Amino acid sequence: MMxxxxxxxxxxxxxxSGVPAFQQIVQQTKQALRLxxxxxGDRLPTxxxxxxxxxxxxxxxxxxxxxLEREGLVEPRPGQGTFVRRTLARPSAGTDSPLYAELxxxxxxxxxxxxxxxxxxxxxxxxxxxxxxxxNAAATAATGAxxxxxxxxxxxxxxTTRSTGE
Length: 166
Hints:
By secondary structure, this protein is an alpha+beta fold. The protein is built from 6 helices and 4 strands; from the N terminus they run βαααββαααβ. About 12% of the residues have low confidence.
């Protein structure tokens, strides 16, 4: 008997962020692709499902999915849904990597020091800007570190659950 993998993605839309809802869906999907949470073959939720859980108009989701399709990340299959076509994950960027474990430990230390989520986000954004600024690109390349176009979504992000069914 073949096991089917079901991935449930729940988008979190921050209406106060100033970022259009469709763009937040694009960013959160790309984040899930970078982390390896979404992999090729996974089906994204329907526009109706996203509308029910995120209170966005179904057309907003369709606009986001068209953008992801234009970038070659997903593909619509008539009558079946929208499926992940390719990943953005790198082996060293997954949630099972040593770097992730170090980051989680650092986050716990920051929380223990009394920093709020917004404080941590500001620190991370500042450190990323310093590391990946155009002036540091040569220095980064010289150290062998890979640069990414990762964009944070602040305190919002897609929640995903992967389960197997029979």
